[in-house]
Write a sequence for this structure.
């Protein structure tokens, strides 16, 4: 199995993930935007048991019922979304920007597109889902809103 590594800006927190991600997505929800301080966030999702911290330990903030968001205690780098993955079990989604090779993790879709900032969009033709990408709903559109 392949291993993916990453960490925070200051290097206090380092992690390793075994295996391929279950998904790589753009999230436009308000909570992710606020956590990252960005107009959209790219996330690579894994089962929680695929992740291990190799240096330091992040602090986890309970951002809503059943959801935690980890960041470095030293430099503040946002690292994860953590919660229930349904049939998958406990999940962790790593912010792609914290991976050592983020260029290897291109998103396949957008979620929570209904919450997007109207002044920002990504110039791609990926499907955009109003909420989730795996609940059976058809995409709201492909490509930026016009």
């Amino acid at each position: 199995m392949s291993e993916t590594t990453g960490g925070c800006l200051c290097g206090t927190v380092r992690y390793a993930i075994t295996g391929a991600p279950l998904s790589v997505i753009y999230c436009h929800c308000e909570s992710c935007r606020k956590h990252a301080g960005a107009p959209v966030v790219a996330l690579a999702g894994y089962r929680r048991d695929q992740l291990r911290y190799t240096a330091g330990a992040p602090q986890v903030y309970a951002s809503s019922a059943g959801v935690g968001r980890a960041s470095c205690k030293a430099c503040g780098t946002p690292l994860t979304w953590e919660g229930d993955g349904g049939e998958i079990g406990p999940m962790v989604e790593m912010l792609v920007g914290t991976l050592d090779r983020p260029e290897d993790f291109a998103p396949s879709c957008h979620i929570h597109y209904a919450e997007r900032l109207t002044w920002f969009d990504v110039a791609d033709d990926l499907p955009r889902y109003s909420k989730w990408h795996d609940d059976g709903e058809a995409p709201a559109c492909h490509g930026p809103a016009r």
